[in-house]
Amino acid sequence: MLSFKQEFQLKNFKFNYRPVKDFVTSPWFPTPVLIIYRCVFAIYSTTWITYRLFAHDRFRKVVTMFYMTNWSYFTLINYFSISAGITIIHYIKKRQGKEHVIVDDVEKGQPRDDETRWYHKMQWFFYSVASTQAIGVTLFFWLFDYDGMGITLSDVNVHVLNSVFMLIDHSLSSMPVRVLHVVYPMAFILLYMIATVLYWALISKEYIYKKMDYSTNPGLAVGLLLAAMFIIAPVVHSFYYATYRLRAYLAAKLTKDDSEELGEEMQGK
Question: Are 133 and 72 in contact (CB under 8 A)?
Answer without folding.
Answer: yes
